[in-house]
Amino acid sequence: MAGTMNQDDENAQRTAARRGELRTLFRRLVTICAFVLGLGPLLLGGAAQANDQEEANRLIVQSVRLHTIAQATTDLELKAANLGRILENLTRIVDVYSGSDRAVDLVSGGDVAGLSMASVQQQLSQ
To answer: Tell me: the pLDDT tens digits for 65-86?
Structure first.
């Protein structure tokens, strides 16, 4: 009977130890979830905004190159195609990369690198 008591005590101790381990694991999982849900979007948001800036800048560089070609050409079809592409790029910056500084400048009626949506639309209508 004494052997049974020791075995019962050992089983109780093992069970208590497992419960303690499970509590610790659960607390760690809760902490990780809180971190991911709380800080994750902030950290990822910064990365997303940096990507918005980079992509908006890439589209601006492409648009400036197209504008240079459009201004230098006498081919009206090429000029219209390039201006149309520039307008698509500027619209994409505003619509898709609205978190970028470039989008804010464009949507407020300003220009970026000498290009504005209004000036490109005006050149297209000529």
So the answer is: 999 999 999 999 999 999 999 9
Going from the C-alpha of 125 to that of each of 18, 35, 63, the distances in angstroms are 76, 53, 18
| 8 Å CB contact between 112 and 61 | no
DSSP, collapsed to helix, strand or coil, labels residue 59 as helix
pLDDT of residue 38: 60
Q: What values do phi and psi take at 108, rounded to 5?
A: -85, 5
Q: Given this model, what pLDDT does residue 34 score?
A: 61
The three-point CA angle 66-56-125 to 5° equals 40
Q: Which regions in the chain score pLDDT beneath 50?
A: none
